[in-house]
Amino acid sequence: MTAGGIAFVEAVHIAGFANASFYAAELFRESFAIDFPVPRDNCGLAIPTPPGNWRQYVAFYKWPDGRIEAVGFCNWIRFDEVYLEGGMCVQRNFYRRLPPEHWLECRARGGIAQMTMEAAARELTDCLAWFGYCGDRKAALVDARVGYRPTRHKYIIVKWFADLPDAQARALEDKIAAIGPF
Q1: Residue 59 falls inside a structural domain
Q2: What b/e string do you get for 34-44 counting C-beta neighbours within 10 Å, with b at 16 or more?
Q3: Could you report the per-residue pLDDT of 127-161, keeping only the tens digit for each?
Q4: Fewer CB within 10 A of the terminal residue: the chain, N end or C end?
Q5: CB proximity list for 66: less than 8 A, separation 6 or greater
Q6: pTM of the model
Q7: Is 88 inside a domain boundary?
Q8: How far is CA 118 from the centre of its chain?
Q9: CA 121, CA 35: separation in Å to the nearest integer?
Q10: By residue range, what is the domain housing residue 18?
Q11: How many domains are contained in the chain?
């Protein structure tokens, strides 16, 4: 379906960056009322966070009038053999502003957050798993659609990219839970 002669799949572009602050800082601040997570050492986590370990994805939408807007964001930090995912956000009024044809297509594809995670999952596969820290019911539904599963630790979810023996998987879950919120 098209809006303004553009198919939804052509109007959305998701790109990965080493530092997406230029594109997504305003969106992030609007969503969380905190500063954008600029890739840096000592970002406040109990693990090393060198800038080279960060991957940030931004979803852009091209409106029928030609304007391009950052409408979604998510952050991944590589830690040992996993990625820690956080900061997922979507422009609050984006869906209400979409042309009806694009809204239907976007909904059928699971929404911008799901599409952003799916794009990252095609690229960030050099790991055993992705871990997330999620306490939001709506976000948990989206996370589940892309393969995240709960762990025995409150708020810690995991998307496995490798089959590990149960003991090794549980030990890795414990290691990530020890980091605290991320």
Answers
A1: yes
A2: eebbebeeebe
A3: 999 999 998 899 999 999 999 999 999 999 999 99
A4: N
A5: none
A6: 0.94
A7: yes
A8: 9
A9: 26
A10: 2-125
A11: 1
Render pLDDT for 64-121 as a digit per residue (tens, 0 to 9).
999 999 999 999 999 999 999 999 999 999 999 999 999 999 999 999 999 999 999 9
Q: Which one-letter amino acid corresponds to residue 131?
A: F
Q: Quote the DSSP letter at residue 63.
A: -
**Residue for token digits 């596969």?**
125
Q: Are strands 149-150 and 129-133 parallel, antiparallel or unpaired?
A: unpaired
Among candidate residues 122, 112, 2, 121, the one with its CA nearest the CA of residue 59: 112
Residue 144 domain-assigned (yes or no): no
First-to-last C-alpha distance (Å) of the chain = 38
Q: What is the side-by-side strand order in the sheet with 54-62?
A: 12-17, 54-62, 68-79, 82-90, 129-133, 156-160, 149-150
The DSSP annotation for 133-172 comes to: E---HHHHHHHHHTT-EE-SSTTEEEEESS---HHHHHHH
Residue count of the chain? 182
Residue pair 55/124 in contact (Cβ under 8 Å)? The answer is yes
pLDDT at 55: 98
